[in-house]
Write a structure and sequence with these properties.
By secondary structure, the chain is mostly helical. Helices cover 76% and strands 0% of the residues. It is globular, with a radius of gyration of 20 Å. The longest helix has 38 residues. The chain has 10 helices and no strands.
Length: 234
């Protein structure tokens, strides 16, 4: 078996982890979406319902973000480049803050600030007025930090932040509109479950980014390009 064949076979590890995380996220989202019909009979409706104070979808999202931060700190500790090390640590801290926000609904406090200075915005979810520029700033920060990383981990990270924060803010705007036009309750329900599901996908993309870097380092140590004595770096 050639070295290039070995390389191709070893590369999909992070992809397999991503697929598994997305499948779990999809199952949890669908269970929550349709829990309104079947879960009350089993007494577990509030455990599955996204809008409950403590629920399974929130736990999974927080878990993914904590795993993301942990893996990033581990990768940073073994990264020789100072700039890349700082980038991994910066993004890890952001992931931890995102997990804190998801667990404690910290972003909702932004609504109190908005309502104090602009009480007549017309929005139901007033936090998005400040949340949208903050989310855009975080995405830009992740983008510039990712430029210090290798190509695949960097792209996964930026994609994860765009999907997660884009869903968190974008679908809140949609849900706000549906409330104001008094749309059918199930359409509103689908909207906030899409938001939660896409946040899970975004968190999964971020979680596999450090795995991609770990595998890159492993392959660099195990496989070299037969036409080039330099190690394969990406």
């Amino acid at each position: 078996m050639s070295r290039s064949t070995t390389l191709r076979r070893k590369r999909p590890f992070w992809l397999g982890a991503l697929v598994a995380a997305v499948i779990v996220s999809l199952i949890i989202t669908l269970l929550s979406l349709f829990a309104v019909w079947w879960a009350p009979n089993l007494g577990i409706y509030h455990y599955l319902e996204v809008t409950s104070e403590v629920n399974l979808p929130m736990w999974w999202n927080v878990l993914l973000l904590i795993v993301t931060a942990t893996l990033m700190f581990l990768v940073a500790a073994n990264t020789p480049s100072r700039s890349a090390r700082l980038s991994w640590r910066l993004i890890a801290v952001i992931a931890l803050l995102m997990s804190l926000d998801d667990a404690t609904m910290l972003h909702e406090k932004l609504g109190l600030v908005v309502e104090r200075f602009a009480p007549d915005t017309g929005f139901t979810f007033t936090w998005v007025i400040l949340g949208a520029p903050i989310a855009a700033g975080v995405i830009l920060l992740a983008f510039f930090a990712s430029r210090r990383l290798h190509k695949t981990p960097g792209r996964l990270l930026v994609s994860g932040f765009v999907v997660f924060l884009g869903a968190a803010v974008g679908f809140e705007f949609i849900a706000d509109y549906l409330i104001r036009v008094e749309a059918h309750w199930f359409l509103y329900r689908v909207t906030y479950h899409l938001e939660e599901g896409l946040e899970m996908v975004g968190a999964a993309l971020m979680a596999v980014a450090p795995l991609a870097d770990i595998q890159r380092v492993y392959l660099r140590g195990q496989v070299t390009n037969p036409t080039n004595p330099e190690p394969i770096t990406d």
